[in-house]
Design goal:
heterodimer; A: alpha/beta; TIM Barrel; B: alpha/beta; FAD/NAD(P)-binding domain; D-Amino Acid Oxidase, Chain A, domain 2; eight-stranded mixed beta sheet; about 25% helix; globular
Amino acid sequence: MLGSRLILGTGGVSSLKVLDEILKASGASVATVALRRVDPAARGSLLDVLLANGVEVLPNTAGCFTAAEAVLTASLAREAFGTDWVKLEVIGDEDNLLPDPVELLRAAEELCEDGFQVLPYTTDDPVLARRLVQAGCAAVMPLGAPIGSGLGIRNPHAISMVVEAVDVPVVLDAGIGTASDAALAMELGCAAVLAASAITRAKEPASMARAVRLGVQAGRSAHLAGRIPRRLYARASSPTGGMADLG
Amino acid sequence: MEHALTSPDAAASRAPGTPASPPASDVVVIGGGAIGLASAWKASRAGMSVALVDPAPGRGASWMAAGMLAPVTEAHYGEEALLALGLAAAGQWPPFAAELEEATGMDVGYLRCGTLLAAFDEDDREAAHELYELQRSLALDVDWLVGSKARELEGNLAPGVRAALWARHDHQVRTRALVAALEAACHHEGTRFVTDKAVELLTSAGSVSGVRLASGGELAATRVVIAAGCWSGGIAGVPEGALPPLRPVKGQIIRLAPPPTSGASPQGVTWRLIGRTVRGIVMGAPIYLVPRSDGSVLLGATSEELGFDTSVTAGGLHDLLRRAHRLVPGVSEMVLVDASAGLRPATPDNAPVLAAYGVGSGVDGLIVATGHYRNGILLTPISAVAVAAWLTGSEPPAAILPFGAERFGVGAH
């Protein structure tokens, strides 16, 4: 499904013109859209801009507070968008918008059973991530920090543990504030990064989209290249011992 | 030569049995919202015969709008041209309101009340301060107030409000009074109201020739003004490129009245929640409270991409009321009069389309004034002035020049 390792969230975008610029600059091939906030049948809409850019729509269940609501919303999304893919969000608190783990797992079980490809927005808890995968989720999307907070990845170690705990792609969702956050996510072994507010609410959204895209690419390359071990003491980069014997 | 339908001349010249065909007008205006009405009024006043077509004049977005005339607090990064248009429009409001009130004897409630934009928590303070920096960089007249200073202006603001922007030149108008006055002004100048829906733009030899109506009739005219808001895109016969994609963006709004006991004060204590327009950023989300002189308050508005749906939802009202209550707790004492939803006409870049088409365009005589999104009431005077200028062959205001349809790059002329 992923042609690019950057997934765009569309929330907070100031106009469709800006959205179009962001899509082009980000190179994203998937964008997530809140089913409850858009009418799939409306013309001249946000969806038209996504489709005109060849971007796949990943419907999400933003705004749901119970498993029952999320399952219903996902089922409506499947009908409306003709896709089995759903980004599952079940929110537990309307101020910090953190996921409700109990309701999330329940909804994930039900939707996976019903044939959905479920990508759950989850906390950075490796145990919950594994339970979600055991329920049949196609990927997990742990948060780096609360939605829209731009705080970056508050607990990189937890994200690493999630990556270790599951055998499905890990997509860093929520918390990205700038390009280096996206790079860090990829260095930690995430398969992709989702960015919304970091881009849509930046002063120059298209420039930030380009920057985050490059951050994702840089982080992915660094991850594949293998970072050097961290050392307590210096190790000179120019050799000081074993100099060539020119005598 | 114009004939009224009932004139003996018109009746005599009609073959027996042929249905009455309405007389040709100089101008047909499609859409009887604030902008269509104001355009029709200006054109009629300039001596043209004008027919205005709308199935329910004045009952679209204009009827729902809160009437904030607030270019300064609406400023956004990357929308500087729109800001310039808004500022020019705000400058035209005092003479426009005066002219309209003089023509009709009706009060449109143009109120120089200023607008306070309050930040609820620390994050909101950051967001407001970013807006303040943008406004300052654009040399706008706006003050930064710490929380206690903001509460000196509006004592009912929640004690926790962190800071506020004070935009003394962002005013308001009572939209329903405006619409009523514009209708009256049109009637006074002889604008003919056609209670029907225009479904097609008619052209002949590269020029507009009139419009076809949903009822099957036609209205002949050599000039047609499209001012039909988010319904503008549903008019057939408009060449691609003359109009960008227009989509409705739903806004729910709540009308609140003072508490029932407030009128019974023996000491004549006046109950008033707020005296100025109060906008807020409440935990990252926008809200506004617009006070009317009778103590009532308009509370809005949601922003939803749901096509032509105009239902009022529990969640929409909950969001508005929760934010309003956090910002101005006393709002909970007010009477909920009604809640309704309107459709803002949005273009891809949030700015209106103001354009006139001439010879060689294929639609010579077509004028477009729509897509005003969040700024329709603010932009009413300047849009009507531009339309009237095009109709009378004079120069439109310079501020509208960046807002032709060609900026959307779809082959407009």
